[in-house]
Design goal:
Layout (H helix, E strand, L loop, with lengths): L1 H29 L6 E6 L2 E6 H8 L2 H7 L2 E5 L2 E8 L2 E6 L2 E3 L9 E3 L2 E8 L2 E8 L2 E9 L4 E11 H6 L12 E14 L3 E14 L25 H11 L11 H7 L4 H5 L7 H11 L5 H17 L2 H11 L1 E3 L2 E2 L1 H9 L8 H9 L6 H4 L1 H14 L5 H12 L16 H4 L14 H8 L32 E2 L5 E2 L6
Antiparallel strand pairs: 1-2, 3-4, 4-5, 5-8, 6-7, 8-9, 9-10, 10-11, 11-12, 12-13, 14-15, 16-17
Helix pairs in contact: 5-12, 5-14, 8-9, 8-10, 12-14, 12-15, 14-15
Length: 486
Amino acid sequence: MKTRRVLRALLLGACVCILIGIGLIVWLALRPVPAWSLPVRLAGISFNVPVADLLRAATHPYGMRLLADHSLPTRHGQLAFTEQDGRLQIRCGPCSAGSLSADASAARLSSLQLTIQRDGPAVWGTVTSSDITISWRGLLSDRRLLLTGELPDTPAATLYALFGEAIPELQHAQIEGSIGARFTLSLPDRRWQIQPNIRLSSVSGLGTASLRGVLPQPRCARPAPEGFGRHIAAAVIAAEDQRFWSHPGYDPVELAAALSPNARQQASLRGASTLDEQVARMLYTGAQRSAARKLRELLYAVEMERTLGKAQILQLYLALAPWGEGLCGAEAAAQHYFSKPAQALNAAEAAWLASLLRNPAQVGRDPAELNRHALWVLNGMQGLGRAERRNARLALTTDRMILRKRNSAPGPQLAERLLPLAEDSVIGQTPLAVISRAKRRDSAPAVIATGSHNENPFCCAEHGTRVGAGTGRRADGPLRDHEHSR
């Protein structure tokens, strides 16, 4: 009799559990989709599980015991779960640290460890990889997780080592300095902000000294025997890098903007990279959007500040920058649009030409917006007198500036415009052989500016020279003295 009662009770309990399970699955399948959830398929039924509930369950003492010694394959790598001293530990290695930006590639890490603790809505923990530890804290609700974290000042070489083969320069680069950061992150909407603290005191071993005194001459450019002139130099700085003369090759404000999801909106008014970094991109790293490329540019920018100096970095940019329609370099752009050398451009023409750097396709699509951006560039140009600035503004607002653009066949494709040396591409390598060939070309002038590397030779009369038309020489010829003019 007792045995029958026990069997009946067990059978009844099993039926109740089955009914509860079926009811739970039906409830999960039919209820409104949570704002932050993960799709799950069980017993042929698909439903969404709230992420906040999963986090609460995983960080509960019983949940941590259930997860302990289990692993889970994900698109980032194999996750291994353990529990230690009331903390949930998740190890991943090798691990792909997914980028928060949709158009940037992920970093490949040899190992990554995440610890999580929770007390009510408060969560905290650490993220560790090699010798680097990031501490974080957050608030968990049903709809979102708000996080704040800090990377303490860490040797820059240690951080760069995380990227391994993605940064080939690490094989021969000597990096001195530190990098730290504070960040905030909101999930699931991926709204985030970073405040970097970068102190790169020295970079060497990249071979940028081989560019000293040389202006490479790509096929899409034209030589500028008289230099580029002060107006186009001032306009390019106003359009692309307003702190060019004061930063050490990188601009933390612009770097934070470039690392954020709204970088494109911010870049609509100002360049996300310094001129140094853009020159590094054109000569060495290429244009692939990734964290590794940005870090490579940073190394080259810091070294070029020491080996080349501001004046020649500016000259390299003016000689190589892509201006659309198969053009590169300020001289080719000035001849194409105004039928005059870059040295002869007035302030309005230079501002209009520099405004093209943001989006050259606007010439035919939205000339009104292009003129508005040209006015913004003009307002940021240094070294203009009141009358000159007033006349330039009048020319841009009343369409008095006449474009003398010639009808021409389509120029080289974008890939060629981005390779500054065309047939002699030096992207990803030290251009020693290329520089040697460039020095033998009669069409490739190499201007060496006077003054120290940190001088702004076009803003101050006492320097006696101006960018692009100052005292200089060809790589294969004697020094030439050009008369200074303002």
